[in-house]
């Protein structure tokens, strides 16, 4: 399988009755396995909506979305949940759990795969990733004691720790400085090259556009042009 | 906590970490559960003491069957019987013996001690078969007028002093202005409505208790021939006494009827029953309040869990983990403070208050169920979460 994500003729609407408005119009796209694909476009054009469709957080209303070979249109809630476990999601807001330390927040990303698994091995994997992201000193801190950028890096570690096949990221570098942003993007590229991890990322950062394998533009819910 | 969560949950103790994060809220919740537990324990303790007291009030005697006036609910209330009931009963085939039991109440006046109300029980001295073991050995001795067997556990009585009572070392005292001599003792204790008791002969009884005569016993005790079954004997006696205003019950039935009368008909019993419900309600409300607040505060976290791929049962598991922790943490101080209150009550009232394992287990299971119920109610809020709103 060389394509991780395929969308064909996808339409999406929000609201009911009078308030019903179409947000996505006949979108088709392909994302190659192991690539870094950037989704760009003005505010309100539908980028996040597309991510939530691929991320099994909304049901597909019209058209076809194939994720890792599985059709999501008409997929059951159980199926959607199972697919979510194969993804790593990085939200625009970090969404860390305030009662858990940095390390524990990352473990949450790992333990979704069920019980079993050696706790020490899990902790070692999580600690290793936090070290790479420059948080080695802070693994026992609660989120309240971390800076915005540090929190975002913990959230990135939580998404990557379980070796997901696909990473979905919504402006993951907005809170990061130049150095950290590049670190994260290089890491995602390396994961793509070495392990075939596919990344679909929403970002306005031009430097990341240059590093991407593919940049997709969206305008008023429609694909405008793709650059490779 | 670490090994518990690894071993039992196979995951991080998220519920515990969440509870621990808000220490004041946790402390208030634990105090609330402990208070509710204590309420329930104290009410159950009172109920159990009331029941124990009723049962022990029958302990000076034994019989297969008791015949009582139709309006009797306890040993001491109700009208009196006609003595002919004794003869009518004895005349029935299968009946080995019958004897009148007289029950009355007298005041024991002592210098420097508040007036003590004693139940006076009386049997004919020859009816030894109906006396409980502690009474039987002294029954011959009380055939001498104004001799008595004294309840050594009566209020304001030194048990060591009472234990000295014997025919050689009699104890002299006065009830209702009449001199009486204790030549032995037994152990029964105070109840709701009496401070202690005394066993005398039927002849002494009519001299001690005004307006009572040998012709009007309070109850009639009946023993059956060996091999005579209880049910047919009861039916036969009821038939033979159908013209008398009496109820005929097995001894055990009479005791149980009295226990349930006390628990349901006497105002005190009903209040206590309502108190148990109130305690449960207080517990459920407090735990619900705490868990609902916690769920509301963590809706975003739970949505994140869902977005990452966690199942609904996982999130329910977190809430029930919290319910379980609150139940355990609240139960222990509740148990401890209730035990202390029992000790105080026992000391202050001379009534049988005490913790027992069965009651502790019952209350613990009740606490668990109440906390789980609260958790289930609090979990209803989870329906509103939508992980798509997180981005
Ligand atoms: N839950 C919702 N209910 C109704 N309309 C919505 C909802 N979410 C998004 N929309 C609408 O759909 C359109 C696309 O929104 P979306 O969030 O996908 O934009 P976006 O490209 O991510 O914008 P931004 O760059 O500002 O994050 C917008 O017009 C928005 O108002
Ligand atoms: Mg968006």
TrEMBL record, chain B:
Transmembrane regions: 26-50, 268-291, 323-345, 357-379
Domain ABC3 transporter permease C-terminal, chain residue ranges per copy: 276-387
GO cellular component terms, A-Z: plasma membrane
Signal peptide region: none
Primary location recorded for the protein, binned into one broad class: membrane
Membrane topology (UniProt): Multi-pass membrane protein
Cellular compartments annotated: Cell membrane
Alphabetically ordered keywords of this record: Cell membrane, Membrane, Transmembrane, Transmembrane helix, Transport
Pfam family, any one: FtsX
Xref: InterPro entries: ABC-4/HrtB_transporter (IPR051125), ABC3_permease_C (IPR003838), DevC (IPR005891)
PANTHER family, per database record: ABC TRANSPORTER, MEMBRANE PROTEIN, HEMIN TRANSPORT SYSTEM PERMEASE PROTEIN HRTB-RELATED
Name of this protein: FtsX-like permease family protein
Species per Swiss-Prot/TrEMBL record: Azoarcus taiwanensis
């Amino acid at each position: 399988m060389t394509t991780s994500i395929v969308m064909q003729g996808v339409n999406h609407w929000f609201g009911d009755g009078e308030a019903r408005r179409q947000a996505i119009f006949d979108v088709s796209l392909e994302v190659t396995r192991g690539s870094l694909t950037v989704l760009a476009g003005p505010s309100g054009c539908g980028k996040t909506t597309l991510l939530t469709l691929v991320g099994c957080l909304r049901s597909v209303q019209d058209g076809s979305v194939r994720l890792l070979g599985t059709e999501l249109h008409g997929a059951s809630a159980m199926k959607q949940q199972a697919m979510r476990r194969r993804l790593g999601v990085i939200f625009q807001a970090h969404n860390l759990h305030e009662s858990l330390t940095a390390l524990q927040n990352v473990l949450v990303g790992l333990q979704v795969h069920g019980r079993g698994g050696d706790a020490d091995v899990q902790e070692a994997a999580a600690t290793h990733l936090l070290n790479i992201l420059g948080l080695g000193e802070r693994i026992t801190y609660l989120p309240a004691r971390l800076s915005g950028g540090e929190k975002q890096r913990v959230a990135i570690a939580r998404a990557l720790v379980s070796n997901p096949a696909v990473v979905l990221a919504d402006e993951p570098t907005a809170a990061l400085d130049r150095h950290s942003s590049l670190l994260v993007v290089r890491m995602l590229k390396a994961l793509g090259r070495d392990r075939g991890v596919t990344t679909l990322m929403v970002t306005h950062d031009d430097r990341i556009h240059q590093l991407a394998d593919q940049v997709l533009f969206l305008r008023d819910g429609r694909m405008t042009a793709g650059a490779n | 906590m670490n090994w518990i969560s690894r071993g039992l949950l196979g995951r991080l103790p998220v519920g515990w970490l969440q509870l621990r994060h808000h220490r004041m809220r946790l402390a208030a919740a634990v105090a609330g559960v402990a208070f509710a537990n204590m309420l329930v324990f104290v009410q159950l303790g009172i109920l159990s003491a009331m029941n124990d007291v009723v049962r022990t009030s029958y302990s000076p005697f034994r019989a297969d069957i008791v015949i009582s006036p139709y309006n009797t609910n306890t040993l001491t209330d109700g009208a009196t019987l006609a003595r002919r009931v004794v003869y009518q009963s004895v005349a029935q085939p299968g009946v080995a013996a019958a004897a009148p039991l007289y029950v009355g109440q007298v005041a024991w006046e002592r210098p420097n001690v508040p007036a003590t109300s004693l139940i006076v029980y009386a049997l004919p001295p020859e009816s030894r078969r109906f006396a409980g073991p502690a009474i039987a050995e002294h029954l011959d001795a009380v055939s001498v007028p104004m001799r008595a067997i004294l309840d050594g556990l009566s209020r304001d009585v030194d048990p060591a002093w009472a234990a000295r009572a014997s025919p050689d070392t009699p104890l002299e005292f006065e009830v209702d202005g009449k001199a009486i001599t204790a030549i032995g003792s037994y152990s029964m204790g105070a109840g709701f409505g009496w401070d202690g008791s005394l066993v005398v002969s039927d002849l002494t009884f009519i001299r001690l208790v005004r307006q009572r005569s040998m012709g009007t016993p309070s109850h009639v005790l009946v023993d059956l021939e060996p091999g005579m079954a209880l049910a047919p004997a009861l039916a036969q006696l009821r038939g033979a006494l159908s013209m008398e205003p009496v109820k005929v019950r097995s001894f055990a039935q009479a005791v149980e009827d009295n226990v349930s009368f006390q628990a349901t008909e006497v105002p005190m019993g009903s209040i206590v029953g309502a108190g148990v419900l109130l305690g449960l309600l207080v517990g459920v409300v407090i735990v619900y309040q705490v868990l609902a607040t916690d769920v509301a505060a963590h809706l975003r976290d739970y949505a994140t869990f869902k977005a990452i791929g966690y199942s609904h049962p996982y999130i329910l598991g977190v809430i029930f983990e919290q319910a379980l922790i609150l139940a355990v943490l609240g139960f222990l101080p509740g148990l401890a403070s209730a035990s202390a209150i029992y000790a105080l009550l026992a000391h202050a009232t001379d009534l049988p208050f005490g913790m027992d394992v069965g009651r502790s287990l019952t209350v613990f299971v009740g606490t668990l169920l109440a906390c789980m119920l609260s958790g289930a109610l609090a979990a209803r809020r989870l329906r509103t979460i939508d992980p798509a709103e997180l981005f």
